[in-house]
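This part of the workshop introduces the protein records we will be handling. An example says more than a description, so a record of this kind follows:
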Amino acid sequence: HANDPTEDPFPWDGASDTRVRLADAIINENVDVLSTSFWRGVLRATPVEANDSGKSAVATTLLSYYRDNVMRSELCQEVQLAAQWGQQYGVSVVHVTWERQISKKNHPISMDEIIAMAQQAPDGTALANLPGMIKDESQEDAVVEMVQAEMGMNKRRARKMVKELRENDVSEMPMDHVVKNAPSVTALKMHEDIYVAPETIELEHAPAIFRRQWMTEAQLKEAATNYGYSKEWVAQVMNTKGRVMDYANVINSEVNDLAFSDGTTENIFEVIYAYQKLIDEDGVPNVWCTVFHPAISKVSAKTEMLDYCHGNYPFFAYRRERLTRRLLDSRGVSDICATWQQEQKAQRDALYDRASLTVLPPFVYPARSSQVYRLQPGSAIPEMRPNEIRFLEPPKSSPNEALEVVNYVQAQADDYFGRFTDGVNPVSSQTKRQAMAENWLMTWSEVFGKVFELIQEYVSDEELMRISGTQPGFPQTPEEIAGKMDLRVSFDVRELDQDFMLRKMEIVSKMVLPEDTAGVIDRAALTNFKMQLLDPVLARMVIPEDKTGASGKVFDQVNQAVAFMALGNEPQYQEKDPTANMKMQFLQQIVQGNPKYQEMLQGDERFQELMQKYNQALQFQVQQEQNAQIGKIGVSPAQ
């Protein structure tokens, strides 16, 4: 439409202006693949040193617990944002921190508790005399000051508590309540949430990294209380409400010139976190963070060294592609699809406009005629002479030409990005999708490596033992933590092809399992894997969480069977038992390791008979497995 009176729209006012969603469709499709690969990917911790092999399984359990439970809600959002921005703009960044949120919650307190506290205090101290001072109204001011200092209350709340204790022997006091104490992962959009120098090669070697965060008034005040931000700085930031820094024009303007908000940031405040690596006097690099506001130059909120960083930035970049070594030299899908999208738009607009001309073509009439004609269905048009008024002939070109161009461009885009369409080679599609997923998961492997470091540093041994079910004995110091575990998230994009996975599982069931006479395959793990592929939700419902492996379960079954036989009870015999060979090995191990069983085999006839039958039953199952194998290959395998 003609929005500018000085320019005429092409080809006419009201002509087609189609919105082609080619880039958007490809981005969303890729984001779905990346998100699926993240959640269905296998997260494993691999030890760097041989003596740490026992801890790798515990580390994997811990990380899976935090990913699938503690951090799941925030990861659902941040994973998708990181994938969207990485595909659209070529680069996105993930920020990893440890977040500890504390709020106040009123808890009841009685004079009996105050007396108990006083009894434990050293004699002669003010705390030892606190119960008597509370009951003495003349010492109320001194008690209020003491409560303020010891319990961190404001004066009004402390006075109220002292009065209630003196009069009612019970009151309430605000106490710290931990709302969150866990790793935190945040996706950042380049040039909006995070800024780096354009010449940056690797994010880890950037001279400085600036992260912009938006805070409400309540969050700023909370930061001053919980994180030690300067109250003077907070007060000055409050005066910048509704104004933001225009970084696009910052070179041509004063640093403290703020532009008026466009409405999206009207009630929030801009806070900048500047991260920089500095070398201390011993030559050790440390990461320092300064919190400031771009319009306030004389005072900052806080400057501190980040102990948890261990000399490395807590930022990890995802690059869609690598054209050069520079971080920002990565194109997004939108850049690559721009010309294809314009081609499709031109052809689709032409088809729409052609249809308009066909339905209602222009007409010609005598120039001397002053009649105003109205063209619409059923209208009557007077004619002074035959054929004086006639429609123009529509364009002679075929609309199929435009459709062929649209389809050709679509096929080019599908082949370039390896989309799952009929016209794309499936091998090429799988190769490109696998490379895309591995590039994506490499970033998350680094992220989970940092998460694991934070878990070791901030989670207590009791909490780790509660989650993992064992004492992990992880390293604690930065020197011990560094390089102890390699974290990796892996995913096979062929798992998205259900037909392929069904064929794969069929081959395993019909060809691999019958040949597993030694019981090498963990059948419980295989069943779990099959259920996860078929329906992850159903798998979580029907498969119990059990930290014991399949071999451990089989061992327990044999151990229990031997114990029953020692009591004179006959064990249960299992038909078509694929673990029979494994059970025979465990049976020998259990009997040889228990002198009482060996003694009973010499003198207890009932135990001897039951053991002989049990062993024969297992041997029969093993023979059946071997017979099935012989029937397939025609010979008995050489022993």
